[in-house]
Amino acid sequence: MNASDPIKLSKNSCKEGAVHIWHLDEVVITINGIKHWLWRAVDANGDVLDILVQGRRNAKAAKRFMARLITQFGQPRVAITDKLRSYIKPISHQAPDADHRAHKGLNNRIEGSLRPTRRREKTMGRFKSPRQAQRFLAAHDQIYNIFRSRRYRLSATSYRHARADAFCLWADYTAEMTS
Question: How many CB atoms are located within 10 Å of the residue 57 CB?
Fold first, then answer.
């Protein structure tokens, strides 16, 4: 079982089409004084689908990231990006049926989901290497999807049940990893 399995388990309880609407973004992170780009994909529910740390921010890097996402989740129906032109070619070639929307206001979902990543980065005293950043963020974002509170949608009782279910899922997952 790998780090992407918790999200597959949590997707079973989500809306059917949520995985097919992707919000894509990239943000700069500094690792040992060198700029790297953190590419992120978030679905319509705000769950992190995947991340990738790369040294470049060009069409080749976007193509690599899109290939990873399509391999794992299939083709999206809608891909929402900022106005970075590097996304145009990979989306049109790798997901020709996807509706590509590049508008400033549509990408707010992913911009808001970046805050926990920045907090973790600061708490850890920054990342030491691109590999360490990739491994940590990939695992932590998937775990965060399970425990992320969606409290505004739930009553107190429902929230407690959802939280208990998340802890049971986590206990089962860790027991499977240790055995």
Answer: 17
Nearest Cα residue to 22 out of 2, 49, 1? 49
Predicted confidence (pLDDT) per residue in 121-160, tens digit: 777 777 888 998 888 888 878 887 777 766 677 788 888 8
Three-class SS state of 43: coil
Residues forming beta bridges with residue 158, ordered by sequence position: none
Domains of the chain by start residue, with CATH = 5-148 (3.30.420.10)
The count of other CB atoms within 10 Å of the CB of residue 41 is 23
Find, among 91, 25, 31, 81, the residue nearest to 57 by Cα: 25
Query: Do 52 and 26 contact (CB within 8 A), yes or no?
Result: no
136 HSE (CA, 13 A, CB side): 16
Q: What are phi and psi of 154, to 5 degrees?
A: -120, 155
Positive/negative CA dihedral, 157, 158, 162, 163: negative
